[in-house]
Design goal:
The complex is a heterodimer of chains A (403) and B (192). Helices cover 40% and strands 15% of the residues of chain A. By secondary structure, chain A is an alpha/beta fold. In chain A, the strands form four sheets. Chain A has a five-stranded mixed sheet with strand order 2-1-3-10-4, with helices on both faces. The longest helix of chain A is centred in the middle third of the chain and has 20 residues. The N terminus of chain A is likely disordered. By secondary structure, chain B is of the alpha/beta class. Chain B has eight helices and five strands, in the order βαβαβαβαβαααα. The chains are: A alpha/beta (403), B alpha/beta (192). Chains A and B meet through β2, α3 and α12 of A and α3, α4, α6 and α7 of B.
């Protein structure tokens, strides 16, 4: 089969001439999360070697460190939050503004918002009860997310706002790296958090909290982690970047192929070199089997997924723009960016198309449409208007007054 | 005199670093076990420089400090000397991250970074070494060999053989190469 694929690549006549990877040994960063599965599997199960690559996996202790190492070149590419890549592109946060690249989507769905056991005992087990509690006088609730520009901050803010709770005025928001969420919940330093798995399932399993909302209930099949790198890396190593996308695409397809592959992937992820958490916390939600800690159990129609015939992996222009609209909505961006122009530079559509077509993977349209839980539709057509269309916001410029 | 907040929440020892910075004439406040309280502590201590292990989970909390302080008279920024990006890169590689109050001259930071880079216990030895290309080629050949043996043994096609090997590897928390070696060893034993 490898010969078959190589001959297909040859016929594509890449712009660069030869398709030989410019760099063969790659340092690839990831955070201890189950949604890093496709890069971990690509690196360890013979997918990268097929394309002439050796991937050294490097687990990171924080998103900030992962970002700095991407910028310094210590990491070539990484499992990244969508919002981390766009945050760096726009110069929001600790790092200098740097041109970044999204090579492909790694997964959709599978994060969640969780509240503490103490809130559960106080009867705060619904969004209405949380709304009442958040607007009561007295101690403000503290919610943790994983990075000021990260996906979890955006899911948390979006969900709270959709329930009538202003995320920046009615509650306090703090940053905690995902593997430490459970410890902070246990120490009662936070009242709730939004993060990826297995840390939410672990909070439920250890009877420290319950899941109030999944992120797929906010936006079914929402974008989440991406394979990210600097623009300079793609420009200097286009063949390596394409080979890497092909290896990760094949690994994604393998994981999603059937339940047996998912189960063995879950087992592998639980190892100490990777997610380093009990299989019992990883496997159920990895297979879409949820229980919320309040006695409800369900098989989720929009579980964590890695491929879905390529629907997950396409670096949609509209996905990239959505994060910028939320940065704008919450005052991280003071002005409207060139939404289309920036997204088109960051999302590596051409490279992705070449990789997907070589593997006979369907390439969907550049923009996609979705209706989120507040009833608003996002289709990428009017980012400026969309960013201004929310009742609750923190728009920071003079235009906000006119609303 | 510059006031330095030294964040101590990873296994690296900062004892000698603190002493060395004090000897060099800086005021040093060291904080351990800090995590989410960090924004309040920074507000209360008002340091000029914050030094933190690059591998510290609290790096993400510092992201919040940087964003929240951006409208204040003395915003905290990550030290990224635009005139010499090599310095930041070198610092990160030695495991030191520095955040400073905007306006502090890079020259004043240099002696602090010099001390920090020398005194933070380096874990270079633990860092993954780049694998030689020869090893990579050899690995690929071993995997191919095992796949071929398995195809014969199980009378299956290439994709099926790969899937069997991968499932076996991941269920046992092994890399594909390890399973390939086991198949080859088993084949050698049974074949001879």
């Amino acid at each position: 089969m490898s010969e078959h694929i190589n001959s297909r690549i040859d016929t594509q006549a890449w712009a660069a001439g030869s398709d030989t990877p410019e760099k063969r040994v790659l340092n690839l960063g990831f955070m201890a999360l189950t949604d890093a599965a496709s890069v971990i599997v690509a690196a360890t199960q013979g997918f990268a070697e097929k394309y002439g690559l050796t991937i050294n996996l490097q687990r990171q202790a924080s998103w900030a460190s992962l970002r700095d190492k991407l910028l310094s070149g210590e990491l070539d590419a990484a499992h990244s939050l969508y919002g981390l890549i766009y945050g760096v592109q726009l110069g929001l946060g600790g790092a200098p503004a740097t041109d970044m690249a999204v090579l492909m989507g790694l997964n959709q769905n599978g994060q969640s918002i969780n509240l503490s056991h103490a809130l559960q005992f106080a009867g705060v087990t619904t969004s209405d009860a949380l709304n009442l509690r958040a607007h009561q006088k007295g101690a403000r609730l503290t919610f943790a997310q994983t990075l000021p520009t990260g996906t979890h901050a955006m899911w948390l803010y979006y969900w709270l706002a959709s329930q009538g709770i202003h995320p920046l005025e009615d509650v306090d928001s703090v940053v905690v790296p995902p593997p430490q969420m459970v410890a902070h919940l246990k120490a009662r330093r936070i009242d709730g958090f939004c993060a990826g798995e297995p840390w939410c399932a672990q909070a439920v399993d250890e009877n420290l909290g319950f899941t109030l909302a999944t992120t797929q209930s906010i936006w079914p099949d929402h974008p989440e982690k991406v394979l990210g790198c600097t623009r300079a890396f793609v420009e200097q190593h286009p063949n390596t970047a394409r080979a890497l996308v092909m290896a990760v695409l094949e690994a994604s397809r393998f994981i999603d192929e059937n339940e047996e592959n998912k189960r063995s992937t879950a087992k592998f992820l639980s190892g100490s070199d990777y997610v380093d958490a009990p299989l019992s916390a990883i496997q159920p939600r990895f297979l879409g089997q949820y229980q919320d800690g309040l006695g409800h159990a369900w098989l989720d129609p929009h579980p964590l997924r890695f491929h879905a015939d390529g629907a997950v992996n396409m670096p949609y222009i509209s996905d990239g723009m959505w994060f910028m609209t939320q940065f704008r909505r919450w005052g991280l961006l003071r002005d409207d960016p060139d939404y289309q122009g920036i997204a088109r530079q960051v999302q590596q559509l051409d490279l992705y198309r070449q990789a997907a077509e070589a593997l006979n993977i369907r390439v969907p349209a550049e923009q996609r449409s979705a209706t989120l839980l507040d009833g608003k539709t996002w289709d990428g057509s009017d980012p400026v208007g969309y960013a201004r269309s929310f009742t609750l916001h923190a728009l920071a410029d003079s235009d906000a007054v006119a609303l | 005199m510059l006031r330095i907040l030294l964040i101590n929440d990873t296994p690296k020892k900062v004892g000698r670093l603190k002493a060395a910075l004090i000897e060099a004439g800086f005021e040093v406040i060291d904080e351990s076990g800090l995590t989410i309280d960090l924004p309040e502590r920074v507000e209360a201590i008002r340091p000029d420089v914050i030094l933190i292990d690059t591998e510290s989970p609290s790096r993400d909390v510092m992201e919040q400090v940087v964003l929240v302080s951006r409208d204040q008279p003395r915003p905290i920024v990550m030290f990224t000397d635009e005139h010499d990006p090599g310095v930041m890169r070198q610092a990160i590689q030695s495991g030191v991250s520095a955040y400073i109050v905007e306006g502090i001259h890079a020259q004043r930071l240099q002696p602090i970074l010099d001390v920090a880079m020398a005194r933070f216990e380096s874990d270079q030895a633990l860092r993954a070494q780049l694998q030689a290309r020869d090893a990579q080629l050899a690995e690929r050949k071993r995997i191919e060999l095992a796949k071929g043996l398995l195809m014969k043994m199980k009378s299956c096609n290439e994709e099926e053989a790969y899937t069997l090997m991968r499932r076996q590897a991941m269920s046992r928390q092994q890399k594909l190469l390890q399973v390939a070696e086991q198949i080859i060893a088993m084949h050698d034993m049974l074949g001879s």
